[in-house]
Write a structure and sequence with these properties.
The complex is a heterodimer of chains A (577) and B (360). With 577 residues, chain A is an all-alpha fold. Chain A has 2 domains: 1-43 and 360-577, Orthogonal Bundle (MetI-like fold), CATH 1.10.3720.10; 53-351, MetI-like fold (Orthogonal Bundle), CATH 1.10.3720.10. Helices cover 70% and strands 0% of the residues of chain A. Chain A has helices spanning 17-22, 28-52, 69-73, 78-108, 114-122, 124-127, 129-140, 146-155, 167-191, 196-203, 208-219, 221-236, 240-246, 254-263, 269-295, 318-344, 361-369, 371-404, 410-418, 425-437, 447-457, 459-470, 475-483, 488-516, 520-525, 533-543, 546-570. In chain A, helix 7 crosses helix 9 and helix 7 runs parallel beside helix 13. The radius of gyration of chain A is 24 Å and the shape is globular. Chain B is α/β, with parallel strands linked by helices and 360 residues long. Chain B folds into 2 domains: 10-156 and 274-310, D-Maltodextrin-Binding Protein, domain 2 (3-Layer(aba) Sandwich), CATH 3.40.190; 158-273 and 329-357, 3-Layer(aba) Sandwich (D-Maltodextrin-Binding Protein, domain 2), CATH 3.40.190.10. Chain B is built from 13 helices and 11 strands. The radius of gyration of chain B is 21 Å and the shape is globular. Classes of the chains: A mainly alpha (577), B alpha/beta (360). At the A-B interface, helix 14, helix 18, helix 20 and helix 26 of A face strand 1, helix 3, strand 2, helix 4 and strand 7 of B.
């Protein structure tokens, strides 16, 4: 039984060779989609790979001399690669641990207030890494963080209590802001899980905790691995959090190193591309390993059918579970928002509780006096709508073709769609910028270039979201319509679209939010005439004060929260946190 | 009347035929060669009425974003020409500009750069429009491109030492650049990163003043690299940093205006000065608006507005901003060999060394 376990499971992978050989030849729709997508996705990656082997003029494009000198030069910078891998692996482990615990509490226990927590836990992800990085740099800077100042005021001066600029600190901040995605993936699987094995365990005398650890957890393994893979690839390509928090401790990762290699003049494109190649290989290896791990497993106990798992009353442990969720919401949502709101209301970087230290001038500045912010807000909303609309329609089409057609090439098409997942956004955008610059028509510097890049880099996310919906729709419903004489359009309008509507809305909301919070890819593609929010905030952080940049982040947060509320209202609470 | 000299390029002498251009572009693109651009038709003077119809002026700069936003607001009020800005450090701007030029198109009209050496490289590549505004007469030769009209200094950035008197007492504070090597400042010094033009200018002049051991000693102090002097000031104020190793002096002016406890030190060895220069990109799509901008920026009025907002000394002797140190009152260090200063090799040497010093 085919089952979509999350964002990165290869849904059509794993067919036997014999079965493949019996399938009809590649259909026209597969050929057309492969022909359209392959160059858009493949050319930027090809340019990055080619530049990584450029040993001639570092600024030449295309390269004139090729060799492996840049890869050898990476030996001098193994600390960047080691930091990246440590942060990604450690951050993923923390986020997965949080997500497993939170999902189990939300979906398998009778703890009160689960609906409210379900919404609150989802919020840190769409609010984005910039909010997390800026807030935690103020909260937990080793020399001046508000938490450390409070600690020193109690125990006297000494070593800091918390340090957001350390490897562990950056890992923690990345984990708490990525964990909601894992809750989404693991929680979805938990809700669909067949409860019979758990009931057997209880009948045989196992405790609730024992059942959770020995039965529920192993059953969730495919979903956990899918979530882990998504987080691992995401954290290897993370930019904003390590860039902002790592500055104080001189801690560099591959993405921040690439950014700096681009910034210095003359820029070192070949070394930056070689670093990008390392990330591409690491991410592709993780995707391959994930496929290997799941290839021969049977998932029949985690079926696509709708079950209502028995909820467990944890009795005396309930306050502990409640406290765990409260703590998560506090560190990932309440504290960051409060500190940035406080900063946004201050007159200067020199924070004070005195009445005359408070002002609304920063909001007035970013909303009225700072035209870049207004332009960036408008452009980001447009791009969010565009990416949501185009991305949803495109990924719905792709998911439909892959899961409904019978011809060959579906697995190849799915792998092409998933290609951007193997490339960190910053690096893909760099290759994409080169690619659009050599196009015969001019789109570089326009919103179209950014829109195209967003659609491409979020293709895997949108596809997985739509794919999960399509596989759950029984073909028998459409076949019934056909038996009763309905035409294709009638079936589409009367059966398919209504069944897909919740999934389409959810995918649109997801793509809208990830577009509005996007930073890394936009850095190379936005321009003075067409600024977008992420780079505008980053630039403002570079040269403006914390009060003003905090005000801009708060404005971005309000936009995202409003979207979530509208979508939630429109879908009756089904999606949008 | 402003004098504009046509550039010695194919486009200036009537321009090649459309067919020839397309053929040439295709051949060069196929060969992967850089495509040269040529200046827009160079009118004698800026036409304000035409400028207002050219659309929104696009300005790249490396100054504080809020300062340029405020200046552009005044510019628009005075001229009726809308303008947008993007803060983009020279290290990022140059390759991006080259890539856009290679593709045959850029939206940038005005480039305000904190590294005159890089601006002169653009001039050498025929990528700047020569425009001799009558305001040039008010500037000494050292503040002008040679020949004049390609780029001109619109403010002088002094790279000084800075600290917050709440965390460092004036008695303990460093008085010279060599004092930065005091072990008590280990892990406590902040500079700008290698992408900053002013950081390059600072290093360039001090490398011939300070002994070579200074740079190894400085690396041992493990200084931090910041994206801007604003971030350094924020860190000084919140106590996460004690010494700003090179902070633009205008930060002190702004802090003093807000009555904040920031102190500035102009070291006895001399204070590096970097000229911030502005020019018109040759491929500008808004040549009249760009010229009106240069006219205003370099005028006495424009210089007062900009440098009053930023807190920097003007290169014009007839513009004095209250509370801003005059460059004639400070021992200022400037590059003496401009050819060496602007060379790619010297920039590459700086990037390699500075990345090493700042732990990259």
């Amino acid at each position: 039984m085919e089952q979509d376990h999350g964002l990165l499971t290869l849904g059509v992978a794993g067919r036997t060779h014999r079965a493949a050989s019996l399938r009809p030849p590649m259909g026209a729709e597969i050929v057309i989609l492969l022909g359209a997508l392959s160059p858009i996705l493949g050319f930027p990656i090809f340019l990055i790979i080619a530049t990584a082997f450029n040993v001639g003029d570092p600024q030449a494009l295309p390269a004139t001399d090729y060799g492996i000198g840049n890869l050898i030069a990476l030996a001098d910078h193994l600390d960047w690669i080691a930091n990246t891998l440590l942060l990604a692996v450690g951050g993923t482990a923390i986020a997965i641990a949080i997500a497993i615990a939170a999902s189990w509490i939300l979906y398998r226990t009778t703890m009160p207030g689960r609906r409210v927590f379900e919404m609150l836990i989802a919020l840190p992800y769409p609010l984005g890494p910039l909010l997390g990085a800026l807030a935690w740099s103020e909260l937990a800077s080793p020399r001046s963080g508000l938490i450390n100042q409070a600690y020193w005021s109690l125990v006297g001066a000494g070593a800091p209590l918390v340090d957001a600029s350390s490897l562990g600190g950056i890992m923690f901040v990345m984990a708490i802001f990525e964990a909601p995605v894992a809750v989404f993936i693991i929680g979805a699987a938990m809700q669909r899980m067949d409860p019979s094995l758990e009931e057997c365990s209880s009948t045989l005398g196992a405790s609730s905790l024992g059942t959770a650890l020995r039965v529920t957890l192993p059953l969730m393994l495919p979903a956990i691995l899918s979530a882990a893979l998504f987080l691992l690839t995401s954290m290897m390509g993370a930019f904003a959090i390590p860039a902002i928090l790592g500055a104080e401790s001189r801690l560099y990762v591959v993405t921040t190193a690439i950014y700096i290699l681009f910034q210095g003049f003359p820029p070192n494109y070949p070394l930056a591309s070689a670093l990008g190649l390392v990330l591409i290989v690491a991410t592709a290896s993780a995707v391959w390993l994930h496929g290997r791990l799941l290839r021969n497993r049977s998932f029949v106990v985690v079926s696509g059918k709708s079950y209502r798992p028995r909820l467990i009353n944890m009795r005396g442990w309930t306050p502990v579970l409640f406290a765990f969720l409260v703590l998560y919401v506090a560190v990932a949502l309440v504290l960051p928002l409060c500190v940035l709101l406080f900063a946004a209301l201050q007159r200067s970087n020199d924070f004070s509780l005195a009445a005359d230290a408070f002002t609304l001038a920063n909001f007035r500045y970013v909303l009225w006096d700072y035209p870049t912010a207004r332009l960036a807000i408008g452009n980001s909303l447009l791009l969010g709508l565009g990416t949501g609309l185009i991305g949803t329609l495109l990924t719905a089409l792709l998911a439909w073709v892959i899961h409904r057609s019978r011809g060959r090439g579906r697995m190849l098409l799915e792998q092409v769609i998933m290609l951007p997942q193997s490339v960190p956004h910053l690096i893909f955008a760099f290759g994409f910028m080169w690619a659009v610059l050599v196009l015969p028509f001019k789109i570089y510097g326009t919103l179209w270039a950014v829109l195209l890049a967003y659609v491409v880099i979020f293709l895997p996310l949108g596809y997985r979201s739509m794919s999960g919906v399509v596989v759950q729709i029984d073909k028998a419903l459409e076949e019934a319509g056909r038996v009763f004489g309905a035409g294709r359009l009638r079936i589409l309008a009367g059966i398919t679209l209504p069944l897909l509507s919740t999934g389409l809305t959810a995918t649109f909301a997801l793509l809208f939010m990830v577009s509005v919070r996007e930073v890394s890819a936009s850095i190379f593609l936005s321009s003075a005439a067409n600024p977008v929010l992420g780079p505008a905030i980053l630039s403002f952080w570079d040269s403006g004060g914390l009060p003003q940049v905090s005000a801009l982040v708060i404005v971005q947060t309000v936009i995202l929260l409003t979207t979530l509320l509208v979508v939630r209202k429109a879908t009756g609470g089904g999606v949008g946190a | 009347m402003p004098k504009t000299q046509p550039h010695a390029s194919p486009g200036a002498s009537g321009g090649p035929s459309r067919r020839a251009v397309l053929t040439g572009l295709g051949a060069m693109a196929a060969a992967g060669l850089p495509l040269a651009t040529w200046p827009a038709a160079a009118d004698v003077a800026a036409d304000l009425a035409a400028a207002r119809k050219e659309g929104t002026l696009v300005v790249w700069h490396s100054d504080q974003e809020a300062d340029v936003v405020n200046f552009l607001k005044v510019f628009t009020e005075r001229t009726g020409i809308p303008a947008v800005q993007q803060r983009i450090l020279p290290g990022v701007a140059m390759p991006k500009l080259q890539a856009e030029m290679r593709a045959g198109s850029t939206d940038v009209d005005i480039y305000m750069n904190a590294d005159p050496g890089l601006m002169d490289l653009l001039r050498e590549k025929n990528q700047l429009l020569r425009y001799e505004t009558p305001e040039l007469a008010a500037y000494a030769p050292e503040f002008l491109s040679q020949p004049p009209g390609y780029w001109t200094t619109y403010c002088v950035n002094l790279g000084a030492l800075m600290y917050d008197t709440r965390t460092v007492s004036p008695a303990d504070a460093p008085k010279t650049w060599m004092d930065l090597l005091d072990p008590s400042w280990k892990d406590q010094i902040g500079f700008q990163n290698a992408a900053a033009g002013t950081q390059y200018g600072w290093w360039y002049v001090l490398r011939s003043v300070l002994p070579p051991s200074f740079w190894t000693g400085l690396a041992a102090q493990k200084p931090r690299a910041y994206a801007s002097s604003t971030q350094i000031l924020s860190s000084l104020q919140n106590g996460s940093l004690k010494i700003g190793g090179k902070v633009s002096a205008y930060q002190y002016v702004k802090a003093a205006r807000e009555k904040q406890s920031i102190a500035v030190v102009y070291p006895s060895e001399g204070t590096p000065a970097t000229n911030h220069v502005a020019g018109i990109i040759a491929a500008t799509k808004r040549p009249n608006a760009a010229k009106v901008f240069i006219d205003f920026l370099l005028s006495k009025d424009g210089q007062y507005v900009f440098n009053d907002i930023q807190g920097s000394p003007s290169a014009r002797k007839d513009v004095v901003i209250p509370g801003v140190a005059s460059i004639s009152d400070i021992k200022v260090l400037v590059p003496t060999n401009f050819e060496d200063f602007k060379s790619n090799a010297r920039h590459a040497e700086f990037v390699a060394l500075w990345n090493k010093i700042t732990g990259f």
